[in-house]
Queue: 2 jobs
Job 1
Amino acid sequence: MEDCIFCQIVAGDIPSRTVYEDEHAFAFLDVNPLAPGHTLVIPKSHHETLGDLPAEESAALAAAVHEVAPAVEAGMDADATTVACNNGEAAGQEVPHVHYHVVPRYEGDGYGPIHALFDGPTDVSDDELDDIADDIGAALD
Ligand code: 5GP
Ligand code: ZN
């Protein structure tokens, strides 16, 4: 995808501070970090969302996140990382090339969990939960 920023970064046409690279995956520092060490992990091939990724690419991306997240913690002397994917435009994804954010976290940094994105638990009845589980399960068949 020649007009994709992240494809251009993988190709080396846009410079980046690369921290990891393998056959399928690539990781580099976010240009507008939420915290120092904020790293993006992406597949080398262009796919917009997690569901678009072929299985092999998805497995390689997960393996890269598995390598990069502890390295971000070690390299940044962080206590933890928030690992998150804005998976689709409605979820806030701005760059339409699938990517995980890996953001260093520290005890007492005050930013909270991903749950803080939402107003809190929503009321769903047991019957609705049964139907929802059936619907999602059916979509996986
Ligand atoms: P999204 O909102 O799509 O989940 O996140 C996209 C991320 O890409 C943002 O955090 C943004 O700062 C980062 N980003 C956008 N353009 C560039 C770029 O040209 N270089 C780098 N390193 N990061 C970028
Ligand atoms: Zn791309």
Job 2
Amino acid sequence: MNTPNLQTPIVYLKGVGPNRAETLQSELGIHTYQDLLNLFPNRYLDKTQYYKIGQLQRSNADVQIVGKIVNIKTVEQKRGKRLVATFVDDTGDMELVWFRGQKWIRENLKLNTAYVIFGRCNWFNGKFSMPHPDMELLTEHQKGLKVGMQPIYPSTEKLSNKGITNRVISKMMQQLFLETKARFSETLSDNILKEIHLLPKAESLLNIHFPKNQELLAKAQFRLKFEELFFIQLQLLTKKALRQQKIKGLPFDQVGEYFKEFYDHHLPFELTGAQKRVIKEIRQDLGSNAQMNRLLQGDVGSGKTIVGVMTMLLAIDNGYQACLMAPTEILANQHYTGIKKLLDKVGLNCALLTGSTKKSERTVIHANLENGSLHILVGTHALLEDKVQFQNLGLAIIDEQHRFGVAQRAKLWHKGGTPQNADNETSAGSLPPHILVMTATPIPRTLAMSLYGDLDISVIDELPPGRKPVKTVHRFDSNRLKVFGFVRDEIKKGRQVYVVYPLIQESEALDYKDLMDGYESIARDFPMPEYQISIVHGQMKPADKDYEMDRFVRGETQIMVATTVIEVGVNVPNASVMVIESAERFGLSQLHQLRGRVGRGADQSYCILMTGHKLSEESKTRLQTMTQTNDGFEIAEVDLKLRGPGDIMGTQQSGVLNLKIADIVKDNDILKTARHYAIQLLKTDPRLEKPENLPIRHAYSQIVKHKNIWNYIS
Ligand code: ADP
Ligand code: MG
């Protein structure tokens, strides 16, 4: 019989057959032998390790502990009884719990005798407990055969219903190793294997599925994680290199009059060191003959806008137009007003285009864009409409990019010319504009590196001078009177206040009611004419929103009651208090964005997170994180841990990585190593032509054939 290769359909594996093959396909995406081989266990039942009660973590993991039962009692509860035993070792105590078979257990358990227990620990009522543990007397246990690590594979309800249990999958895996004689080709070079002491591929696969011991398992995991991340990095870096070779950029070779004039005479403040550094990085991109694709990260209030403005001036100095796209109308408005004020001084033309721009104005804007008399266009998604055509778009800036999809980013490319003609060097008009993406949602470096490995990243890691960190506190709804008293005091000092309500799509009507109820109660507590209140929410007409917003910006109202529409970008330096209602319903990054609305002036600012008493563990972590730190990057890391990368990047990108074994958060160090080696490799052998790199080249082409992440990341 021929040894099957790994591309053989899974149906041919002995013990699978058409029915199971179909279930494996639909439930786990397993089509071939290779796919099954790459189904890695989620965890292992480790019967080689013994834990102490004092070391237990709230991880829900299965653990093995040696100790003894010191007492046992029956606890009556509404729905039947349960048997509870106190189990101790020299580091602490925990509970063992039985709901079934209590009589037998009670009669057979020995008190004050050493047992080995095994099972999953729960954290309950401030104590660890293990329901229905596997138990064995220590003396018996020591006589028995040592059992190793038992892999537990991913499962679904349908799999178990169809009888494809963990044992069945383990059996299939054994069969696969038998049939293929476990001859799995190496995918990395000898160099890399030696340098980082990696286990060879075949041995890693053997030990990931049938670990001989903890140490070999750890080595196998390391090797496979490294490999997975390495090939992703290789793809991203190759893509980046290709882009830099192929996609020529518009040559912005001069720093001209507008830039100099503005820089020398009209800068409203001294730039921070970080702002200067980032502008330098951008200037380097623009002068490099390659298209710029830069992500500018900076915490809320770090001053990204001015960097954007200076970049626009560079575009205009070189004879091009520029545009800036923002995610909401309010934000577009605010950018427009701010930019216009700055650039009027150097005599540049600037227009605003949003969904509510009148038709007659639009016609004028379209015409002026095409004849080139309009230098800068600021707006919302409206910029993406087909009718909007520039004469000469050289730079597109996208603010708060997490709101925009990849497809929209790509659409901007076509506004100034067609990138397909990028090879045609003679016609500058056919080159895509430079792209600068500004975001205040810090993307943890880990994620940025893996998802945006092809983007260049600049970071403004310094706030303008004189900013005081916002003081953040958590208050319960029952303390509302006190909170209102504080708000009143701040208003007396001349400050302004935001009160924000959640708005979550699924229950929009309900949230809207909350908002209106809240508004009414605030209006009662802060009566006219002493207090003036603005309200802004998504169901208002844009003109009404603007009117209310303007009143607040001008200081005519002291309180702004709003939904999250004010989340991004809005800048009212005199507002120094942010009250967030039902704060437990907001995500971390949203809370941080909201908090960023205050702390923009010289006064001490406050963020008050209001909640009820009932809070989940996760909500508590979020609130705690907020009260403990103002650092957006730290917050983003916690957020990533709580939610996982998929949610953070939006569904569109969550499927991009689809990691089989590596964990982008926990395996950060491996990621860095993998990136380092991928960079080194491409430096010394960019086309993977050297004989020693053949295994990599072969594996790489296989991967690109089957799962090309280029298709997902623009
Ligand atoms: P963000 O990065 O959140 O978009 P902005 O660009 O809106 O921040 O800037 C926040 C505020 O800080 C604005 O009022 C802006 O004028 C001010 N600002 C920006 N840079 C500086 C600086 N170097 N010195 C003083 N104030 C600055
Ligand atoms: Mg901004």
